[in-house]
């Protein structure tokens, strides 16, 4: 007996289900990696909020960063570092354009790829979080959206409510998990 939705012996519904499952696993895997960067061998991950590193790293990308001893950081590396304007800590991801040894300490001149001029202040070795090993575009937009009230409703409350409604519908219509 062949399924009713086949052509040439291929069950296209089953193929579509497997493709959908594969896509879902990849998408969930990317978000798990962003939340738990150790799952992909990185120490930390950050959402890039500006386009200062375009086109190499666009705004909305997630960068994966590994801790590296300052002595191993060289010109051309993309680093993430702490910048503390006004007492609040923020992270910046820029390219090292010059390594300077001042007072026996390594410091780094950085610049965003899309910026015309280097950053005005040197980055001390102690401020460096690590070197960017790779980035995933677009995922950061969803992560930032999920941290808003509307995002929480759209991505968590909405699907949960839909699941409850569908389960109640199945129970009331008698199409639950009954065996005949």
Give an account of the 3D structure.
With 180 residues, this protein is of the alpha+beta class. It has helices at 12-35, 139-146, 149-173, and strands spanning 6-7, 10-11, 44-47, 62-66, 78-83, 90-102, 105-111, 123-124, 128-136. The longest helix has 25 residues, at 149-173. The protein is elongated, with a radius of gyration of 24 Å. The two termini are 20 Å apart. It is found in: Membrane. This is Signal peptidase I. GO terms for molecular function: serine-type endopeptidase activity.
What does the overall shape look like?
elongated
Count the beta strands: 9
The fourth-level CATH homologous superfamily of the largest domain is Umud Fragment, subunit A
As for the CATH topology of the largest domain, it is Umud Fragment, subunit A
Helix/strand order, N-terminal first: EEHEEEEEEEHH
Low-confidence stretches: none
| Biggest β-sheet description | 7 strands, antiparallel
* Strand order of the biggest β-sheet: 3-4-9-5-6-7-8
Overall domain count: 2
Strand content: 25-35%
CATH class group of the largest domain: Mainly Beta
Named at the architecture level, the CATH assignment of the largest domain is Ribbon
Estimate the mean pLDDT confidence.
88
Question: What is the helix content?
Answer: 25-40%
Continuous helix count: 3
Q: Give the oligomeric state.
A: single chain
Query: Structural class of the helices, strands and pairings?
Result: alpha+beta
Distance between the termini: 20 Å
Radius of gyration, whole Å: 24 Å
């Amino acid at each position: 007996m062949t399924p009713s939705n086949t052509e040439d012996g291929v069950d296209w519904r089953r193929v579509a289900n497997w493709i959908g499952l594969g896509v879902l696993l990849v998408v969930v895997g990317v978000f798990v990696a962003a939340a738990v960067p150790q799952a992909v061998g990185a120490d930390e991950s950050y959402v890039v909020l500006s386009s200062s590193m375009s086109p190499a790293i666009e705004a909305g990308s997630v960068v994966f960063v590994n801790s590296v001893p300052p002595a191993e950081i060289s010109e051309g590396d993309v680093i993430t570092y702490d910048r503390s304007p006004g007492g609040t800590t923020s992270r910046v991801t820029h390219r090292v354009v010059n390594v300077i040894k001042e007072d026996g300490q390594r410091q780094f001149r950085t610049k965003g790829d899309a910026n015309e001029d280097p950053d005005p202040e040197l980055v001390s070795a102690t401020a460096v979080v690590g070197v960017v090993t790779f980035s995933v575009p677009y995922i950061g937009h969803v992560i930032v959206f999920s941290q808003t009230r509307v995002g929480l409703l759209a991505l968590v409350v909405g699907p949960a409510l839909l699941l409850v409604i569908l389960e109640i519908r199945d129970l009331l219509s008698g199409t639950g998990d009954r065996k005949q």
